[in-house]
Write a structure and sequence with these properties.
By secondary structure, the protein is mostly beta strands. Helices cover 7% and strands 34% of the residues. It has 2 domains: 134 residues, YaeB-like (Elongation Factor Tu (Ef-tu), domain 3, Beta Barrel); 65 residues, no CATH class. The chain is built from 2 helices and 12 strands; from the N terminus they run E-E-E-E-E-E-E-E-H-E-H-E-E-E. Strand 6 and strand 7 form a beta hairpin. It is globular. Pfam families: TrmO_N (PF01980).
């Protein structure tokens, strides 16, 4: 099988660092799916606006050239315990494919074809999308499902210094706070409380430090 992208998403996340590790954890995070020229047909999305959420089958394009590994170390386990790749959502997969459930905020029909406006995304800007499928609540909402080692939502931390975000619109401010509350630092960087990080988000470089379980925004710079 040979597959080609049906489109690409533009999102508020300018790099892999800072992207929520699962969809829906940052509800304000936005994205726009714009279709490839051969799929810019209004008929292809007829009826889609009746659904609140869609599945995106996408490609981990930033790590695809690094191959796959039979075991990985998920951040939820502190980055120091190995599990099987098929028991994870790691990017280092045999076919480099991901699956994301995102909110469908609206379907816009434009001169350049349909555009899907999305919410709660966990995808970096420019991610290729290979398919779109509507979410079916009656079949795919499973209240008694088990979540293994990731049973509960990740803990969140307090975010201060939000006055630094005044240069951003309201939704972008919410994106930054929601994303930083998840502590995006890699496990290896959590032993350096004095270290300042920068993350490309909502068209800005947002600088922050995390110390004593509190994230402090230290500045917002132009990119």
């Amino acid at each position: 099988m040979t597959i080609e992208p049906v489109g690409w998403v533009r999102t508020c996340f300018g790099e892999k660092f800072g992207v929520p590790r699962q969809p829906g954890l940052c509800p304000s995070a936005w994205g726009e799916l714009r279709f490839a020229p051969e799929f810019r047909n209004d008929e292809s999305v007829r009826g889609l606006d009746g659904f609140s959420h869609v599945w995106l089958v996408f490609g981990f394009h930033l790590t695809a050239d690094r191959g796959w590994s039979p075991t990985v170390r998920p951040p939820r386990l502190g980055g120091n315990q190995r599990i099987g790749v098929f028991a994870s959502r790691s990017t280092f997969r045999p076919n480099g494919l991901g699956l994301s459930l995102v909110a469908l905020e609206r379907v816009a029909l434009t001169d350049e074809g349909p555009v899907l406006h999305l919410g709660g995304v966990d995808l970096v800007d420019g991610t290729p999308v290979f398919d779109v499928k509507p979410f079916l609540p009656y079949a795919e909402t499973l209240p008694n499902a088990r979540g293994g080692y990731a049973e509960a939502e990740p803990a969140r931390i307090e975010v201060t210094g939000q006055e630094m975000l005044a240069v951003l619109d309201d939704r972008s401010q919410r994106v930054v706070v929601e994303a930083l509350s998840l502590d995006p630092r890699p496990p290896a960087g959590r032993d350096e409380p004095e270290r300042e990080f920068g993350v490309l988000m909502c068209g800005k470089n947002v600088r922050f430090r995390i110390e004593d379980g509190v994230c402090r925004i230290t500045g917002v710079d132009e990119i």
